[in-house]
Amino acid sequence: MSLILPNRRISRRQLLQWSGFAGGSLLLNSCGSNFGVTEVGNATEPFNQVVQSLITSQRPVPEFSARQIEPEALLINSFTDAPVIDPKTFRLSVTGEVNNPMQLSLTELQNMPKRSMVIRHVCVEGWAAVVQWGGVRLADLIALAQPKPGVKYVYFKSADGYYESWDLAASLHPQTLLAYEKNGEALPVDNGAPLRLAAPIKLGYKQSKWVTEVMVLSQLLPEKGYWEDQGYEWFGGL
Ligand SMILES: Nc1nc2c(c(=O)[nH]1)N[C@H]1C(S)=C(S)[C@@H](COP(=O)(O)O)O[C@H]1N2
Ligand SMILES: [Mo]
Description:
alpha+beta; Sulfite Oxidase, Chain A, domain 2; five-stranded mixed beta sheet; five-stranded antiparallel beta sheet; 25% strand; globular; binds ligand MTE; binds molybdenum atom
């Protein structure tokens, strides 16, 4: 069942609740202000307020109904065989220019608020599919990691060697998920289990499967993405 927050803000209480799994006591920044806690008029505006304003300024893309899901239409598109990942020992690392780097198990991720959405996946190779995805908002993870001022990009490393980079705004979009569920069931291995990106605002090749690391950075690396480095456009917006 999905727990959808009444608004997109994360309260101090929620952060502290979730911080149990992150082993974290690092959720307070130097100003004593958490992501999601609105405190205007602070001369040294915490960067997390910038993050929050980015999130709340982004309008959600209209979603489809469950009846419109096209279970057969989502084609497997992988550049190599699916990597072997044991979901029990799997950890997602959140690293880079953050005050609170984290390593999260699948259970810990599944204990976070769950967001479900029915959106269209679009591959540049000429096919599309309406799919339901369930998972955690990437914005929630990035908020917990407490990004440092100046971050602009998010990198994703995958277990098959795939890699991707996204702009921060798209990464914080309310419908950008790290999904562990597809069409109401556990995410199949070929679709990226245990964890993959899913968002209605980017083309298929931006949506990394088998994600193992989320890295928050202030600069783009020379390697921008697996397909981008072979000539595909970087932004990949829909
Ligand atoms: N790790 C990884 N992620 C990936 C790919 C891949 O080869 N490896 N292919 C991309 C492409 S081009 C598309 S269209 C989608 C396809 O997702 P699906 O196989 O679940 O349909 O995954 C994207 N993410
Ligand atoms: Mo694709």
